[in-house]
Amino acid sequence: MTSETAQAQAGVGRLGLCAGCAHYPALLEAGRCTPGDACIRAHSGRQIDRFLRQNREQADNYLADIFWERRAIAARYATVDRIFSLKTDPDEVVRRVVASRLPATQLDSMLRDPDREVRLSVAARLPEQLLHRLLDDPDYLIRATVARRLPHGQLSRLLKDPEREVRKIVASRLPSFALHRLADDPEPEVRAIVGERALPELAARLLDDSEWWVRLAAVGSAPIAALAPLLADPEGEVRDAVRARLNANTPSPTQENRS
Prior knowledge:
Blueprint: H1 3-15, H2 26-29, H3 45-54, H4 68-77, H5 92-101, H6 116-125, H7 140-149, H8 164-173, H9 188-197, H10 200-206, H11 212-219, H12 236-248, H13 253-258
Helix pairs in contact: 3-4, 4-5, 5-6, 6-7, 7-8, 8-9, 9-11, 11-12
C-alpha cells in the first residue's frame, strides 16, 4: 500500500464516507476517489462532480439517487440513452441538465416544463420547425429566444408580441422590405431599430418621428434630399449626424475639378 493510499484510508474513519461504499476500497486504492475531495457519497456538488468526472462509467448508476444534486451531476456524465426517464424528474436542476443533453428532436415533450430555465434550454435547441410551439410561452425570455431563431418567414407572428424586447429582436431580423410593419410600434426603441435598417423611403418617414433617437437612427438610411430640414432639429446629435452625412456626400473641389 502506498503512503498516499494509507493517508487516504486514514481519513476514512474521520469522514465516515467510505463505510459501506460500493467503490471501497477498489477506487480508493486506484486513486480514482479521495475522501474530502472526490467522493460520490459526499453532500458536496464539487466532490460528486470530481468523482464522476474521473469515473464516468459509474454515472448511470446514480440517475435514480435520492439526492437531487447527485442525480443532476450524474445526468451530465451518463450515457444519453439512459437519461430520457429524467425528463420528468421532480427537481428542475436535473431536468435542466437533461434538456441540455438530449437530442434536439427529443425535446418536444419538455416544451411546457414549469421551469423557465428548462424551457430556455429547449428553446435554444429545438428544431426550427417546432419553434412555433413556443410562440405563446408566458415568459418573454423564451419568446425572445424563439425570435432569435425563428425562420424569417415566421417572424411576423411576433410583430404584436406584448414585450418590447421581443419586438426589438424581430425588428433587428425582419427583412428591410418588411420593416414598415413595425414603423408605428409604440416603443421608440423598436422604431429606432427600424429607422437604422429601413429602406430609404421608410427612413425618410421616420425623420419626422417624435423621439429624437428615432430620427437620429433614420438619418443614416434616409435619402440625402430628405435631410435638410433636420439641420434645424432641436437635438444637437441629430443636427450633427445630418451635417456629417451631408458633408460626406458633398464632392470636394478637387473631385469637382477632376470631373
